[in-house]
Amino acid sequence: MLSPVIIDKVSRRTRSIPAVATSSVPQSERRDPAWLRPGILVLAAICLIGLFSTEEAGYDTWWHLKTGDYIAHVHALPVPDPFSFTTNLGKPAYPGEEQVRHFNLTHEWLAQVILYEIYAAGAPGLVLFKAFILAALCGLTGLIATRRSGSFYAGLAAAFAASMVAVEFASDRPAIISFLMVAVFVAIFEFRRPLWLLPPLALVWANCHGGFFLGWVVAGAYSAEALVQEFRKQPVEDALRIWKVSVVTVAITFFNPNGFRVLETLFRYRQSYLTSTLIEWRPPYLWGAPYSFDLLLYAAAAVLLLSWRKVRVSDWLLFVAFAAASLAAYRNILLIGFLAPILIVAWFPRRFHTPTFAGIAAVVLLAVLLIAGVARGSFFQLRAALWQYPAGAADFMRSHGISQPMFNTYEYGGYLIWRLWPQERTFVDGRALNESVYRDYRRILYNAGSPNVLSTESQRLLDQYAVRVIVMNTFEYVTGAFYPLALGLGNPANEDWKLVYEDPQSIVFMRNPPAGLPVLDKARGTVDHMEAECTLHIQHEPEYPMCAHALADLSLRAGDNERAKRMLSLYLGNATQKDPSAEQALRRLLQ
Q1: Based on the number of CB atoms within 10 Å of its own CB, is 318 exposed (0-12), middle (13-18) or buried (19 or more)?
Q2: CA 420 to CA 112: how far, in whole Å?
Q3: Distance between CA atoms of 170 and 230, rounded to whole angstroms?
Q4: Which residue of 159, 376, 397, 416 shows the fewest CB atoms closer than 10 Å?
C-alpha cells in the first residue's frame, strides 16, 4: 500500500500538468523486441535527413551567405546596404519604409553568420544543416505526439505527416530556424522541462529571425492555459514558474537590432506592393498543392470540434493562431504542418490500436523509402543547384572586369551579390529593400506593354538609373510567362544594346561594350537562349512546363513552326493534365 506521502507527491505532480488525452499503450506495442523501436527511430532519422537534403537551390541563399560573410569580416551589420546601388534611391513609397528596410537588413544577422561559417567549412555542410533542422522539427512533432497519444506508432505517423509539409521548406534560409524554435518551445512547455532554457533560446532566436514573436504566442498560450486552470479551481503547481519564465522570455527578446518593432514591421509588410507580388506572402490555395497542408488543417479542425469539450486551452489557442498565420501567407503553413499532426493523434475520438505487425511494417516501409530516395538521387544531394543560377554570366563579368551599373532580374540578385560584389552591385534582389525601385524594375522588365520592341519608357528608366549592363533570365518558371524586356533588347532594330553573353541559365546585354569584347547575333541568340533556358528548367523541374507553352505561342506568332513543334512536344510531354488546345495545335503543325 502506498504511503500518504507518496500519494500526495503523485497527486501534486498530476495537478501540475493540465489534463492530456492519452491512451494506454496497446498490448501489441509492449511486445515489440527491444531492438525494434531504436532501429525504427534510426531508420526514420536517416530517411528524414535524406528527404530534406536537397540541393542548395534557394534564390535567397546566396545573399544570406554574403551578408554573413560581410558581418563576419567587417564586424558590423550591413547598414547602410553595401550590396545594391538602388537601395537608398528615391523617396519612401509608404510611411515606415525606412524601418522595414532596416529590419530586412538586420533581423537575421546571427543566422546569416552561422550559415556562412557552415558554408565556409564545406558546401555540403549547409545542405546537412538544413536537413538536420527540418528533421529535428519532425522528430519533435513525433515526440510530442507520442506523449500526447500514448502510442509510439501514432507519433511516428505524426512525424512523417509533418514532413509532407516541411519538405516544401527545404531551403537554406533563416526562417527554418523559427519553425524549429516553435517546436522546441512547445516541447519544453509540454514536458515542463527545462523551462529555464526558454529565455536564452529566445535571445538567440530574436537575433536569428524576425519570427521570434511566435515564441511569445507559444508562451502566451501555455500561460493562458495555466490561468484558466486556476479559475477552474484546478490549480497548476508550476503555474507561477510558467508565468515568470514567459515574462522573462518575452522581455529578453528586446535585445536584437530592432527591439520590439517586429509586429509593427509585419503590419508595414501588408502595406507593401512589393510584398504583395511575392508568392510566399500570398494566402495558400485551398485544395491546391501542397494538398498535405489542406488535409492536415481540415483534419485537425474536425478532430478538435469532435472533442471540443476535452480540448486543452493551449491547443485551441495555438491552433487558432497558427491556422490564421498559415491562411494569411503561404510562408507560414509549416506551423500547421507541425501542430496539426499532434492535435490529430492527441484528440482523435478513438484509441489507437496498433497491429502486432506494425513494427516490422514500419521497418520495411522506411527501408523502401530510403532505398528509393537514394536510387532516384533525391536523397543526400550535397551540392548546389548551379543549373539554376547565372554562374556562367558571373564568370564572364568577372573575367572581363565589368563593373558598370547593372540591371538584373529579381531572382538572380542574390547569386550576383555572392559572386560579383564588390565589383558589381545589384539593381534589385530578394531582400526587398526599395518599393519605388521595385516598381520601376517591373516597368522595365515587362517593357511597358511593348513585347517585341524596347519601349521608350523602359529605355528612359534604364537611362535614369544609368544602367549599362543587363543580366537576366527570360521566364517566370511557375507560370511560364516570359519577360518582354528580353525580346525588346533582342530586337535587331535596337542597335544600342548588344548581346555579349548567353548560356542556358542567363543572357547578358551591354550598352557600349568595351572594345574587343565579342558581340553575338542577338536576333537568333535571344530566342535560342529562351528555348535552351526553358528546356533546362523542365529537365530539372518537369512539374513546371508552362514556359514551353509560352514559347510555342511566341514561335507560332513569329512563324517559327519548327521551334513551336519542339516546344509543344516538350510541354505536352510534361503537362500534369490534358490540354486539348495544345494537342490540336501540335497535330496541325505535324500535318
Answers
A1: buried
A2: 19
A3: 42
A4: 376
> Given the C-alpha cell 537534403, which residue does it identify?
53
pLDDT digits (tens, 9 = 90+) for 384-397: 999 999 999 999 99
Cα–Cα dist 486/470, whole Å: 10
3-state helix, strand, coil in the chain (%, to 5): 65, 5, 35
- For helices 123-149 and 36-52, the axis angle rounded to 10 degrees is 140
DSSP 76: S
The rounded distance, in Å, linking the Cα atoms of 569 and 381 is 30
Beta carbons within 8 Å of 403's beta carbon, 6+ residues apart: 423, 424
Residues 6 or more apart whose CB falls under 8 angstroms from that of 191 comprise 147
* CA gap 96, 353 in Å, rounded: 56
Q: Are 507 and 529 in contact (CB under 8 A)?
A: yes
CA distance 501 to 509: 7
* Cα 142 to chain centroid, rounded: 22
Handedness of CA 477, 65, 276, 335 (dihedral sign): positive
Torsion angle of the four alpha carbons 369, 374, 380, 386, in this order, in degrees rounded to the nearest 10: -120
Which residues make beta-bridge pairs with 502? 507
Residue 406: phi and psi, rounded to 5, are -115, 140
Pairing of strands 497-502, 469-472: unpaired
Q: Please give the biggest Cα pair distance in the chain.
A: 98
pTM of the model: 0.91
**Residue whose C-alpha cell reads 521548406 in the numeric block:** 169
- Which triple of cell numbers denotes residue 226? 495555466
Cell of 9: 507527491
What CA dihedral angle connects 410, 415, 417 and 422, to 10 degrees? -140
Residues of the chain with pLDDT under 50: 1-28
Q: Report the C-alpha gap between 111 and 116 in whole angstroms.
A: 9
CA distance 478 to 481: 8
Q: How far is CA 220 from the centre of its chain?
A: 26
Strand partners, 482: 475
Q: How many CB atoms lie within 10 A of CB 57?
A: 20
Phi, psi of 510 (to 5 degrees): -135, 145
Strands 406-408, 469-472: parallel, antiparallel or unpaired by DSSP? parallel
Cβ neighbors of 11 (< 8 A, separation 6 or more) are none
Please give the Cα distance from 542 to 558 (Å, whole number): 26
Question: What digits encode the pLDDT tens for the residues 2-20?
Answer: 333 333 333 333 333 344 4
d(CA 501, CA 493): 19
Give me Rg for the CA atoms of the chain: 27
What residue has cell string 530516395?
Answer: 373
Give the cell for residue 153: 506508432
Do 148 and 20 meet the contact criterion of CB atoms below 8 Å apart? yes
Measure the CA–CA gap between 143 and 316, rounded to whole angstroms: 20
